[in-house]
Amino acid sequence: LAYSAYTIAITRWRSGIRKDMILLDNKAAGKLSDSLLNYETVKYFGNEGYEGREYEGTLLRYQKMALKAQSSLSALNFGLSLIMYLTLRNVKEGLATVGDLVLVNGLLFQLSVPLNFIGWVYQEVRQAFIDMEAMFELRDTKPEIVDMPNAIEFDPVRDGTTIEFDGLEFGYTTSAPGMVSQNGASATSPSKVLREQ
Q: Residue 123 CA to chain centroid, in angstroms?
């Protein structure tokens, strides 16, 4: 009974650590994919060092959480060793016999598998609840862009599927590298730069 309570207490502690690990892992994966998908932008603004430091910092925090998770697992396994130590101490003090030590050892080995299974099941159920909580948070996230209340439903049969740009202009408020024509005037579009050259 005491070992079960100990297992539940350590598992609760571990579930908080696992939750933080999942958040940090998702954050690191997001930073990596954003940096790779937006490689040109990162390169253009010279942010490779910044992005690398941010990613490395997230990975270091994840590693610390992983070490905490491993330490908590070791604490969970320490419970069995503590029971064996207490029995051995009782044998040394004459309060128990060697037969008692063999009995406790055999009993622990026979009970450790079911107790470890109980701990594993409890941990998996807690982890499932954590994952479900994250899923519900994602489901409840309000979109940033929403249709206006009087928006007209798009019907491709009625409205067609052709997109036409009429009177569209492109320009920069300040000239960007490569966007200045040979005479020094700012271009209104990349094609205009090519035509003027």
A: 18
The DSSP bridge partners found for residue 180 are 186
DSSP string, 17-56: HHHHHHHHHHHHHHHHHHHHHTHHHHHHTT-HHHHHHHHH
Q: Residue 110, exposed/middle/buried by CB under 10 A (0-12, 13-18, 19+)? A: exposed
Torsion sign (Cα): 52, 58, 64, 69: negative
Q: Which residues have a Cβ under 8 Å from the Cβ of 119 and sit 6 or more positions away?
A: 7, 8, 11, 76
Q: Give residue-wise pLDDT tens across range 112-153.
A: 677 677 767 877 887 788 788 888 888 888 888 888 888 888
For the chain, which residues score pLDDT lower than 50? 178-197
- Using a pLDDT cut of 70, give the percent of the chain over it: 83
Q: Which residues contact 91 (CB under 8 A, 6 or more apart)?
A: 97, 98, 100, 101
Q: 87: burial class by Cβ within 10 Å (0-12, 13-18, 19+)?
A: buried
CA–CA separation, 176 vs 31, rounded Å?
A: 27
